[in-house]
Design brief:
The protein has 424 residues and is mainly alpha-helical. The protein has a single domain, classed as Ammonium transporter AmtB like domains (Ammonium transporter fold, Orthogonal Bundle). A hairpin with a 3-residue loop joins strand 1 and strand 2.
């Protein structure tokens, strides 16, 4: 059976097998991934209008608190607990019962089980935070809180179990997802598209300017996301080893190529090199390399980053100009499209010589891997979209999803939080 992440299953397992270097690297990586959520707040906060920047920052900051508690209580055991039919984990580890200093050989045999849990917690935190960009500037805070908690429980935990947990059906099927292209980006991207469609367009969308109020925040956020992504991808080796080094190199390479390709296309189309284009392109490259980081080499990373910049750039135009969906901060175009491309590209470029726990892709003699990746993309996307629709529909019936028009025009900073970002 294929190993999840960087280690072969069954390796290690006792206190005497704890490796201090591996433990230090995974804990440091957990801290890097934690930083990504407030970094996302800055990235998104700069893109909204000034009357909504605090509300946007609050989305990411609040999720860091909410999901940290949810993960300890029941999120982790549902995602990684003993398998129940290939679809969900049992409640054996509720409240971290039995999750302590001794390694769990099924997942990471050289680090404490709690270190693995904490690392995975940061993934669970940032994933619903990504969705918030789709409904920025118009969603009730109460509806946001309920949606986030329900989504983390009924979407993130099951899909994480399918793809990464021992016994998960997509893992056993053979799908590869090194660091979360399917689990994180496809689920959040598709859910964001559903949310944007259900909430409807912002007041004045297409009629008045909704330009970013502070691109310096966005570039700062993009830089911090790039920095944190080394923990996201290289940390997924779960050891301080050559696989982590490979993931580090290809992560940086794809991000750089994504920035270059998006900015170049924007420059050719609009006549000027866009700062926002470079920042968004870097994020698209990071998204796309995520599932592939532990399976591909640097040349493949260049192609993956190139594709991400091109596909995501045109997806932004297609959604807003042609389809007319107000995905406020282009979550589906970047994370959904980038995640789909990255997952499929893993099926093209993966090499077993880089990671014996993986498999070869189409270009290395194994066309079946591309099919396995496509099944994982479809299953995760359809499930996330369907469950998100149900959650949002129930919330809308019970309390309403959207703030009244008068509050939206005033701005969510004032109407939802009673505070202003700028006292000028």
């Amino acid at each position: 059976m294929r190993a999840g992440f960087g280690l072969e299953m069954g390796e290690g397992g006792g206190l005497e097998n704890i490796n201090s270097g591996d433990t230090a690297w995974v804990l440091a990586s957990a801290a890097l991934v934690m930083l990504m959520t407030p970094a996302l707040g800055f990235f998104y906060g700069g893109l909204v209008r000034r009357k909504n920047v605090l509300a946007t920052l609050m989305h990411s900051f609040f999720i860091l608190a909410l999901i940290s508690v949810q993960w300890v209580l029941w999120g982790y055991t549902l995602a990684f607990g003993p398998d129940q039919g290939g679809f969900i984990g049992g409640l054996d580890w509720f409240g971290l019962n039995g999750v302590g200093a001794e390694p769990n050989a099924d997942y990471a045999g050289t680090i404490p089980h709690q270190a693995f849990m904490a690392y995975q917690m940061m993934f669970a935190v940032i994933t619903p935070a990504l969705i918030t960009g789709a409904f920025a500037e118009r969603k009730r805070f109460k509806a946001f809180v309920i949606f986030t908690l329900a989504w983390a429980t009924f979407v993130y935990a099951p899909v994480a179990h399918w793809v990464w947990a021992v016994g998960g059906w997509l893992r056993d099927f053979g799908a590869l997802d090194f660091a979360g292209g399917t689990v994180v980006h496809i689920t959040s991207g598709v859910s964001a598209l559903v949310a944007a469609s259900m909430l409807g367009k912002r007041v004045g969308f297409g009629k008045e300017s909704m330009d970013p109020h502070n691109l310096t925040y966005t570039v700062l956020g993009a830089g911090l996301l790039w920095f944190g992504w080394f923990g996201f991808n290289a940390g997924s080796a779960l050891a301080a080893n050559g696989l982590a080094a490979n993931a580090f190199v290809v992560t940086n390479t794809a991000a750089a190529m994504g920035a270059l390709s998006w900015m170049t296309i924007s420059w050719m189309r609009h006549g000027q090199p866009s700062v926002l284009g470079a920042a968004a392109g870097a994020v698209s490259g990071l998204v796309a390399i995520t599932p592939a980081a532990g399976y591909v080499d640097a040349m493949a990373a260049i192609l993956i980053g190139l594709g991400a910049g091109v596909f995501c750039f045109f997806a932004v135009d297609l959604l807003k100009q042609k389809v007319g969906i107000d995905d406020a901060l282009d979550v589906f175009a970047v994370h959904g499209v980038g995640g789909i491309w990255g997952a499929l590209a893993t099926g093209l470029f993966a090499q077993k010589s880089i990671n014996p726990g993986g498999d070869d892709g189409l270009f290395y003699g194994n066309p079946a891997q591309l099919w396995e990746q496509a099944i994982a993309v479809g299953a995760a996307g359809l499930y996330a979209g369907a469950i998100s629709f149900v959650i949002l529909k129930v919330i809308d019936i019970v309390i309403g999803l959207r703030v009244p028009e008068s509050e939206e025009v005033l701005g969510l900073d004032s109407s939802q939080h009673g505070e202003l970002a700028y006292q000028l």
